[in-house]
UniProtKB/TrEMBL annotation:
Species annotation: Brevibacterium pityocampae
Domain Pyridine nucleotide-disulphide oxidoreductase dimerisation: 362-470
Domain FAD/NAD(P)-binding as annotated: residue spans: 11-341
Homology family: Belongs to the class-I pyridine nucleotide-disulfide oxidoreductase family.
Name this polypeptide is given: NAD(P)H-quinone dehydrogenase
Entry keywords, A to Z: FAD, Flavoprotein
Source superkingdom: Bacteria
Length: 478
């Protein structure tokens, strides 16, 4: 191994090319640093290649399929060109070509990875395909995929190495019948019956998508309800929708093993029951990619789970070493990873910076309906009901919702008693990821319910339910 010790000031090495890594590299380059980014696969990382971009592309297709399937109540009739007979929305004339869907998904992911790489190069970042690890305090060993390993001494190091799907010894993925979410895009045909083990965000999203695509889905949840970490009212609405659409939801049912059979898989539950299906998706969490990264040699502390410990500006316990994204124990969201990376570089390179505020982070579960949240939660409210008030406005009374046959969903707002300052909110419904924005702005800028409700909304619009909910918390002026 050759040693290359470059004395250049503000030398930044970023390990990992996902949202946390490439956003950090762009900020560092903008601030005049000499930046090297090392990614073992392609720029964009797992978020672009196997996780966020592919899954949300699949969900977009499933969403359209679901809209068509439920269009009968809107007066839409689909003609069968072979027989000339009109079919209703469930007449079986529409089918999902999973091979074509997955081909498009992978093409989009590859195009996005290429765009990110070009953007980094244009910004002056040196993008290296290969591996990297710490060998000491701010000493990095880089092993290019097509060259000899070398060592660099950096002023700042950012670790953005992400995470990978957790696997159970009794349910080893084979990429054919027993799958992780990274392996789904190799399927050429829609599974006849898919068992999804795990009812967190990932499990719920894929269960929702495959159900809309026309697949028989069984969702195995070890908890009392789906999405145990989300708003309880929102989770209840979603579970009811799942069941109404024919999904088999097995609550309080922990899977102990998954085995291949001649015709597919057999999932064994803790109580002895078995579920036979053609395929099984394991969605039981993630493990940070922090092994063999040289953390101990650099003095970087980790938690028992293996996640890297960071503070509000993404600093680790080692001077000059920062971390961002799913390898940390902060919220596992691409938007949070990107902000962690930016904050790290702003801090390291002396720019103005504010610590990450998780209260202001909006998140979304891309099920049908979607669930978007920001700030204060229902659990927070129950602990502080004397100081906080809340209101829930159902979408079923919204005129635009009636036009679109939207019957499930609501807007919920949490506000401080007395001042009316908006603390958080929940939106359940189509495009909740878009509807949460005004509540997010209110939380970020400490607006009151009266300030939000006085804003004009288009009539008719789903966003009208946001201001209507705020209006119900009006504080009478004295």
């Amino acid at each position: 191994m050759k040693n290359v010790l470059d004395p250049a000031q503000n030398r930044v090495v970023v390990i990992g090319g996902g949202p946390g890594g490439y956003e950090a590299a762009l900020v560092a380059a903008q601030l005049g640093a000499d930046v090297t980014l090392v990614e073992r696969n392609r720029c964009g990382g797992a978020a672009v290649l196997t996780d966020v971009v592919p899954s949300k592309t699949l969900i977009a297709t499933a969403e359209l399929m679901g809209d068509i399937a439920e269009s009968g109540s809107l007066g839409i009739r689909l003609d069968d060109t072979d027989t000339g007979e009109a079919s209703d929305s469930t007449g079986g004339r529409i089918r999902a070509d999973l091979g074509a869907i997955n081909t498009r998904i992978l093409e989009l992911a590859n195009a996005q990875a290429t765009d990110i790489h070009h953007g980094l190069v244009r910004a002056g970042v040196t993008a290296v395909k290969g591996q990297a690890r710490l060998t000491g305090r701010r000493q990095v060993e880089i092993s290019p995929a097509d060259g000899e390993a070398y060592s660099v001494e950096a002023d700042t190091v950012l670790l953005a190495v992400g995470a990978h799907p957790r696997e159970l010894p009794s349910a080893q993925p084979d990429g054919e019948r027993i799958l992780t979410w990274t392996q789904l895009y190799g399927l050429a045909e829609l599974p006849e019956h898919l068992v999804v083990v795990g009812s967190g965000v990932t499990g719920a999203e894929f269960a929702s998508a495959y159900n809309a695509l026309g697949c028989q889905v069984t969702l195995v949840s070890s908890r009392d309800r789906v999405l145990p970490g989300e708003d309880s009212d929102a989770a209840e609405v979603l579970e009811n929708v799942f069941r109404s659409r024919g999904m088999n939801v097995l609550s309080r049912s922990r899977a102990t093993s998954v085995e291949r059979t001649e015709t597919g898989v057999e999932v064994t539950l803790e109580d002895g029951r078995t579920v036979a299906a053609t395929h099984c998706l394991m969605a039981v969490g993630s493990i940070p990619n922090t092994e063999d990264l040289g953390l101990e040699a650099a003095g970087v502390q980790t938690e028992e789970s293996g996640h890297i410990t960071v503070d509000g500006v993404s600093r680790t316990s080692a001077p000059g070493v920062y971390a961002a994204g799913d390898c940390t124990a902060v919220l596992p969201l691409a938007s949070v990873a990107a902000m962690q990376g930016r904050i790290a570089m702003w801090h390291a390179l002396g720019d103005a910076v504010s610590p990450l505020k998780l209260r202001n982070v909006a998140s979304n579960v891309f099920t049908a309906p979607e669930i978007a949240t920001v700030g204060f939660s229902q659990a927070d409210y129950l602990e502080n009901s004397d100081e906080v008030e809340t209101v829930t406005q159902t979408l079923s009374t919204n005129p635009r919702a009636k036009m679109q046959e939207i019957t499930d969903g609501f807007v919920k707002i949490f506000a401080r008693r007395g001042s009316g300052s908006i603390l958080g909110g929940v939106v359940v419904g189509p495009k909740a990821s878009e509807l949460i924005l005004p509540i997010t702005l209110a939380v970020e800028n400490r607006l009151t319910v009266d300030q939000l409700s006085s804003s004009f909304t288009v009539y008719p619009s789903l966003s009208g339910s946001v201001t209507e909910a705020a209006r119900k918390l009006h504080h009478h002026a004295r």
